[in-house]
Amino acid sequence: NEHSSRLFAHPDELYQLVPGVLADIQRLTGLGTIALCLRKEEQGPAFKLLTSDGTRKPSFCQMPHCDRCRSEKDKTVFAPHLKEVALYPVTSGEQHVGDISVELSPGQTIEPWQHSLLSAISEVFATTQGLSKLSHQHSQIALMEERAAIARELHDSLAQSLSFQKMQTGRLRKLLEKNAGDAQLYDAIDQVQEGLNDAYRQLRDLISTFRISVSEPGFEQAIRNAVAQISGRHALEIELDFQIAHCPLSANEETHCLHIVREALSNVGQHAQATKAKVSLQQRPDSLIQIQVEDNGIGIPPQPEKPGHFGLAILSERTSYLHGNLMITRGDPIGTLVDVTFEPTFLNNIIPKPKYATENNSHRISGG
Fold this sequence. Notes:
With 368 residues, the protein is α+β, with helices and mostly antiparallel strands. The chain is 47% helix and 19% strand.
């Protein structure tokens, strides 16, 4: 029925669905109240009691003195204190995780077909309980990975920016001690100011990135939201071509790809004087993942990177984390193309490792 079929599809809804299943079994068999007791430890008391009639605790239940009516593993028995209660063990793997209790009228016996049905439903509950635990473990792992990713991102981006500012302020102090000229002092101050602006922008982007990653269902939606944010911030018309929905990227890979797209588009909005941009994510014929961000702006200058300016450095750094290649190409006649390719981890041990056309972690800027 509907309740039973949903158990396997939604094991995380075990507690919500079980009462409906028990009620269906009670109506079908004509037996008395049916209850499911679940235990965390095989020898411990039940932590959860679910019943077919919605009562919190059936009259025959001895909870928390659960040792008085515990079934034997893989064997149906009658509760010692009440001969009118039959117990069916719920066993997940080698662990006895609970019992199904069935209330019987005086003198009533369980017919073979009822016994088969109750035994089968106990196996269903055991399997679903195992799936529910597995789902919870996956959620815990995902939470731990999320926390680790946040710590890693803070270290890899913001901490490095602040470290650079510490060096810059030390340089400024030395210039003051040497009574350096105004030109040198103002240059150092400008670099500190620019670095602080970059650090603030990185902090804002980190907050946006992790707000998206936590609240949005999936990598593609996170990319779409990032594109929409930057499009609105810079009045930039952005076309998105997302063709890697079938690729099971790791959480780290998704985070780095999201940062690459955000950083490349932020550079377009701040420096390119562009009106249009296109973002493409696809899997190439050689199975590598390719990210391209193209704009119709003024084109990247021959010497784009100034001390303290982290725009291109961040792109290069993110690409290196992916063990990939970064190429930045001037358009002909206008615009800039940022091209990142990397081998996703899900290809490991599946296909021969591809040979890159250029060295890993390369960063090239070329004319059109």
